[in-house]
Write a structure and sequence with these properties.
Helix content is 22%, strand content 38%. By secondary structure, the protein is an alpha+beta fold. The protein has one domain. It has a ten-stranded antiparallel β-sheet with strand order 1-6-7-8-9-10-2-3-4-5, covered by helices on one side. Strand 3 and strand 4 form a beta hairpin.
């Protein structure tokens, strides 16, 4: 089932403002490389513009909850495909296909610039937090938007395709100082980490979102998105 245009407009509105994750080793800052800001990493770097039509990027998506009242646990496969725009073959678009069991969904098409998997995950985040907190979706989106601009960026390294690559880790805890802590309850400690690198196709390697309990025990909710394959095909003729 394809997402309705209104949902796409909400997602794109979120993209104009929003932010995410995976464990990585922090490296010493290298003076020769300018450190990007969080908005540059998340929205402004044209990772997809470097790839030809026909490229397919495959991601594993895993969502795990510790309790039934926090929602269901599930696994998905997400595939991003680059194709020529229907109205102008000189332009490139990205579509996202999502498979959970035998069910298929889709998102897009998006302009082939920054990686839209970040937007897909953040739209889900806004909805989940709204459902769990019974709060305002507008307030939740505003908090995520603000946190994106304040996110921490640091050099990182991680393993991809059998070798160590250099990149950037972007981290944020959007609700840690929120004035509505009582309503947000366990959500206040939710932490986002994103891994980006020009050395991996599509720029985005992984996202990890964890919600630890107040007592420091096992995570209540954990979401992971990880690139597992990036196949660049020859441009369509």
């Amino acid at each position: 089932m394809r997402l309705m245009p209104r949902s796409l407009l909400l997602r794109l509105a979120l993209a104009a403002t929003l932010p995410m994750l995976a464990g990585a080793a922090v490296l010493p800052v290298r003076a020769a490389i300018a450190q990007p800001g969080p908005i540059e990493l998340f929205f402004e770097t044209p990772y997809l513009a470097k790839l030809p039509n026909g490229t397919q990027l495959s991601y594993d998506y895993a969502h795990t909850t510790a309790r039934k009242d926090l929602g269901d646990s599930f696994d998905e496969k997400m595939q991003l495909t680059l194709t020529p725009a229907a109205d102008d073959a000189s332009k490139q678009m990205a579509k996202v296909d999502i498979r959970r069991g035998n069910a298929d969904q889709g998102a897009g098409p998006f302009p082939a610039l920054s990686n839209p998997l970040t937007l897909v995950l953040m739209e889900r985040e806004a909805k989940e937090i709204t459902d769990l907190s019974k709060g305002s979706p507008f307030y939740i989106r505003n908090r995520l938007r603000t946190a994106l601009g304040e996110a921490t960026v640091e050099p990182a390294s991680f393993d991809y395709d059998g070798k160590s690559v250099a990149g950037w880790k972007m981290s944020m805890v959007p609700f840690a100082q929120d004035p509505h802590k009582q309503q947000l309850a366990e959500i206040i400690n939710r932490r986002y980490e994103f891994l980006f690198s020009d050395a991996v196709p599509g720029g985005l390697y992984a996202i990890r979102v964890v919600t630890p309990p107040a007592d420091g025990g096992a995570n209540l909710i954990e979401t992971k998105l990880t690139l597992i394959d990036g196949a660049a095909s020859s441009p369509a003729k």
